[in-house]
Amino acid sequence: MPSPLTNRMVCSTLERIMNNILKSMPMGKQPGPVSLDDLKRRIRKLEGQSHHQDAAALPFGVAEIDAALPWGGFPAGGLHEMTASGPLAAAMSFAAALMGRMAGTVLWCRRGADLYGPGLSALGLTPERLIVTRAERERDLLWAMEEGLRSGALAAVLGEPSGASTVVLRRLQLAAEAGGTAAILLRPNGAKWAPGPALTHWRIGAAPSLGRWPDLPRWRVELVRCRGAGKIEKNRHEKPAKGSGSWLVEWREEQQNAFWDKPATHGFAVAAELRHGPVAPPSTWRQAS
Amino acid sequence: MVIAGSGGPRLAAVNRAAEAGGVGPGMPLAHARAVLPGLEAAGADPKGDHRALAALAQWAGRYTPWTATDAEGNGIWLDISGCAHLFGGEAALMADLDRRLTALGYETRLAAADTPGAAWAVTHFAAASGTPAVIPSGAQTEVLATLPVAALRLQPDVVEGLRRMGLRRIGDLLNVPRAPLTVRFGAAPLQRLDQALGHTDESIKPHRPLPPMRTRLAFAEPISQRSDIDAALGQLLDAMCRQLAATRQGARGLRLNFYRTDATTFEVTIGTSRPVRDADHLDRLFRNKLDNIDAGFGIEAMILAATVTDPLDPAQADLQGDSAKERTGVTDLIDRLGNRLGPKRVLRLQPRASHLPERASRPVSALARDDTPADPLPGNKAPRAPRPVRLLPTPEPIEVMAPVPDHPPVMFRWRRAQHRITRADGPERIGPEWWLEPPRALAGGQSRIRDYFRIEDTDGVRFWVYRAGPYQAGTPPKWYLHGFFP
Maximum distance among all alpha carbons in chain A? Predict the structure, then answer.
């Protein structure tokens, strides 16, 4: 992968070259001014990094997470990895809630038979939008994922393979780019996979509820790695996206109490931002004596 | 061939040489050995014979789809009305069939007639081996008149009774008054007579349901290359799609039969979720399945049959608009996935009106016709208790420590891991659906009433557990884990 410095250097060199060309061109029959963004995009495509800014991004609806991602949201047309750092149901439900926000049909490829429709509908993934494949063999599962990604008719494809090599991950990434579909790979706790060309890497765990009853879903969401963070700037004046972060995310539901037929609005909300390391005590606290 | 019978093994069938030597079917084996010392005997295999006959009937499908086996008579029926012209006439078809069967090593007697009864009679009692007999239309009365009464497929005692009455030939039966015959022998003789002469209809039951549409391609030389098979498939699909367009229909299930030179057949089937008339789409679906076929010594004919068709208007075939394009994209993808993985492995989770959690959602094949009935109570969308994201197919028993009588657990043990509960919600009582008669037993033979609790342990993992049955003092309650919440 070319280093970020190369990219920057190429861009600045290109600017200078373009300016020189424009200055040195004779007047009269001139082609229209070539935009710098166009050239940047062409170079990125040639280098195989075309996903960076052209992909449409689905915003989380939560300012903190959207700010941490360089695309301003969850990008389509790329591979994403989600590892479960807790129970598998937590990672599955987070992915389901995320896909519930997308518009379009979603394909879920898994080996087991325990997906439950009513639970997924509550998170926004209604049954008419979901297709589940129950492949027996690993290569059938990967084939189904690739078919779904390449078809371009789906909003997202979620797969739970039991292992994937770098080659397989690269294939899925190419298929996702070709079809403009988001590919999400779900890994159970403790699975070790080869590092791959994923755009983002998340770690999802369960978070205890607040209060006396088990309440609405709550997750510990950690964005471990993000490709292109800190390097590509949308605008020179904005700060580049951080590309990592850890949040306590919960699922908010607002029911319209009086009228049952109005749909409930629901979405993500960040309850807290989690940090590693010591927290500096505010000065108003009393020191324990 | 020897088959066991009363009084010891008997001969079931003999070949020509043995027949010339003086032994015949029905003779006891010991007697036959005495007559012909060099006789070789092998055990008869009636089931194997039936299977071979069925395979031959399937192979005979290259001529007509309407084939059936006649097990007692050791024969195959073929209904060739309407397809004889494809082979250059009935005589040419019969000659071709005779040639192929002889090449396979069978000794055959063929006859073609207006009615199945007449054909059966001629093959069993009149035809010489090697020359197929074609009885002209309407001429069966003259031909049958000279044949013995047994040619009417009657029981042996009826035949014997008729013989005693002096009615030996079918011609004798034609002029006899019918009522006394019926009184004496029942309806069978006259019914068979009428069927053989064509006065009443008799149809043979084909061994496979007839497909609504069929296209056929036979090759001058057997092919085995994949490219040739693909090209032939393309031609067949084009012809089929033209037929479908002419009748304004779309295919939902297609079957491609291959006929090999050694008289074996195999088939490849595809299905789609909506009626299709697009040759390219069907070709793509077939391509995935043609990778593993074995052409053997060569394929000499391919027949494409549309087994399921549905009406398809031209307006539906040309869809406009993005959402319509996306819908066709999704259904095409479902077709491809379903045809490769199997229709039962590409599913939609269809909701059902049931409050039993395992029945509330049913995985339905995405390729099936969308017959979901409309929601019976569209206004009834009251919020229900939350449901888990993962539901175990069979609930797993757990060991639970819970205060009695109806409190949620404080600690439970599942798969050797201990979980301490910090938060709980419940109980939610789910009882059996008493309006379903007879009452269905739940999986695992558990008690009918379940008290569900949503519990959360110290790590924030949420479970859905239930106690089978209400609390009863003295019996330890049984607890099960049914699902996981996010």
Answer: 84
- Segments making up each domain of chain B, as ranges: 2-42, 47-197, 213-337, 390-485
Which of A204, A257, A176, A15 is CA-nearest to residue A93? A204
Please, where are the H alpha helices in B156-210?
A: 156-164, 170-174, 178-185, 188-197
A72: left (phi over 0), alpha (psi -120 to 50) or beta: left
Question: Among A80-94, B144-158, B318-332, B397-411, which stretch is predicted with the lowest mean pLDDT?
Answer: B318-332
Q: Among candidates A190, A215, A226, which has minimal Cα distance to A91?
A: A190
Cβ <8 Å between B348 and A131: yes
Residues B427-449, mean pLDDT to the nearest whole number: 65
Residue B327: what pLDDT?
A: 65
The overall average pLDDT reported for chain B is 82
The answer on pLDDT for A240 being more than 70 is: no
Residue A72, both tokens = 């301003």
pLDDT at B439 over 60: no
CB A106 within 8 A of CB A157: yes
Chain B residues whose CB is inside 8 A of the A209 CB are 423, 456, 460
Q: Tell whether the model's pLDDT for residue A132 goes beyond 80.
A: yes
Residue of chain A whose Cα is closest to the Cα of B353? A118
Shortest distance between the Cα of B284 and any Cα of chain A, in A, equals 13
Which chain A positions have a beta carbon within 8 Å of B336's beta carbon? 147
Per CATH, the number for A58-273 is: 3.40.50.300
Task: Determine the residue among B332, B336, B349, B387 to mutate to test chain A binding: the one whose Cβ has the most chain A Cβ atoms within 10 Å.
Answer: B349
What CA–CA distance (Å, rounded) separates B97 from B346? 43
Query: Fold match between B2-42 and B213-337?
Result: no
The strand pair at B75-78 and B67-70 is best described as antiparallel
DSSP state of B105: T
Q: Which token pair is B101?
A: 């069967």
Instruction: Inspect the interface and report whether the beta carbons of A92 and B347 lie closer than 8 Å.
Output: no
What per-residue confidence (pLDDT) applies to A260?
46
Distance from CA of A267 to the nearest CA of B (A): 15
Question: CB–CB of A115 and B485 under 8 A?
Answer: no
- Mention the CATH class of domain B2-42: alpha beta
3-state helix, strand, coil in chain A (%, to 5): 35, 25, 45
Specify the range with the lowest mean pLDDT, choosing from A42-46, B121-125, B264-268. Answer: A42-46
**Alpha-carbon distance values, B137 to A216, B9, B185 (Å):** 81, 45, 30
- Report the alpha-carbon distance of residue B10 to residue B378 in Å, rounded: 73
Please report how many Cα atoms fall inside a 13 Å half-sphere around the Cα of residue B359, on the Cβ side: 13
Q: Which residues of A touch B381 (CB under 8 A)?
A: 260-261
Query: Quick check: A214 and B337 CB within 8 A?
Result: no
Distance from CA of B403 to the nearest CA of A (A): 17
Question: Which candidate in A82, A130, A133, A252 is best for mutational testing of the B interface (most B CBs within 10 A)?
Answer: A133
| CB-based contact A81:A185 (threshold 8 Å) | yes
Using CB atoms, pick whichever of B333, B340, B485 lies closest to residue A148: B333
Under 8 Å between Cβ of B486 and A93: yes
Identify the pLDDT of residue B482.
Answer: 93
Task: Tell me whether strands A218-226 and A245-254 are parallel, antiparallel or unpaired.
Answer: antiparallel
CATH superfamily of B213-337: DNA polymerase, Y-family, little finger domain (3.30.1490.100)
3-class SS at A11?
helix
- The pLDDT value recorded for residue A13 is 67
Q: Taking the domains of chain A in order of start, what are their residue ranges?
A: 4-46, 58-273
Is the pLDDT reported for residue B261 higher than 90? no
Split at pLDDT 50, 70, 90, the class of B233 is very high
Whole-angstrom distance, CA of residue B285 vs CA of residue B269: 10
The two tokens of residue A269 are 């909300």
Q: Whole-prediction pTM value?
A: 0.69
Q: Which amino acid is at B323?
A: S
